[in-house]
């Protein structure tokens, strides 16, 4: 999804939740400012659905919960809220909230040309301060390519690049899958 700043007065989280319920689209909240979430490409949508379905099916009958792009994430120890394309939480503290989760172990962003730099840079800087986060998955919507930022046991973030023929491994939820499973049947030409 593409975030576009909306010029509104600074909002507290409480006012943001009430205000957003009255809006026709979703908004992220960053430092009191709201940013409209606009639609993505057909490939973006199909990839997001496939990943969310894959995660949900893998975690069915487990204590973990899968969220789609309608589930807000509260950036750890801030009043900022984002809408990633998919997320997973296995933390009991997230079972007591109704408008967002705070402790995801996995966050997935499907990359769009307009948001890729922010997803890789500023947004990841915010996400990585969360002690519960173990895997941050960035999925290309224009080529068969996935980058995984994985937190090692030593607390360092490692970057693993997956290409055609690779098996993606998400240690946070004990899931491995062939990268082609996400891209099957998609038109990945530049015009798509």
TrEMBL record:
Report which superkingdom the organism of origin falls in: Bacteria
Gene3D superfamilies reported in the protein's UniProt record? tt1808, chain A
Q: Which PANTHER family match?
A: GLR1098 PROTEIN (PTHR36558), RESTRICTION ENDONUCLEASE DOMAIN-CONTAINING PROTEIN-RELATED (PTHR36558:SF1)
Q: Which organism is it from?
A: Prochlorothrix hollandica PCC 9006 = CALU 1027
Its lineage reads: Bacteria, Bacillati, Cyanobacteriota, Cyanophyceae, Prochlorotrichales
The Putative restriction endonuclease domain is annotated at 14-173
| Record's protein name | Putative restriction endonuclease domain-containing protein
């Amino acid at each position: 999804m593409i975030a576009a700043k909306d010029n509104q007065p600074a909002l507290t989280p409480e006012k943001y939740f009430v205000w957003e319920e009255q809006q026709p689209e979703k908004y992220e909240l960053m430092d009191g400012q709201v940013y409209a979430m606009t639609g993505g490409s057909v490939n973006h949508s199909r990839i997001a659905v496939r990943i969310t379905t894959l995660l949900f099916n893998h975690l069915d009958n487990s204590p973990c919960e899968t969220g789609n792009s309608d589930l807000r994430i509260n950036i750890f120890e801030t009043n900022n809220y984002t809408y990633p394309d998919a997320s997973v939480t296995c933390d009991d503290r997230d079972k007591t909230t109704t408008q967002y989760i705070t402790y995801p172990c996995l966050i997935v962003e499907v990359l769009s040309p307009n948001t890729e730099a922010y997803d890789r840079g500023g947004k990841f800087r915010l996400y990585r301060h969360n002690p519960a986060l173990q895997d941050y998955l960035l999925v290309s919507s224009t080529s068969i390519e996935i980058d995984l930022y994985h937190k090692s046991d030593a607390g360092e973030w490692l970057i693993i690049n997956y290409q055609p023929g690779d098996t993606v491994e998400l240690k946070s939820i004990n899931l491995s899958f062939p990268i082609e499973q996400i891209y099957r049947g998609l038109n990945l030409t530049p015009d798509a």
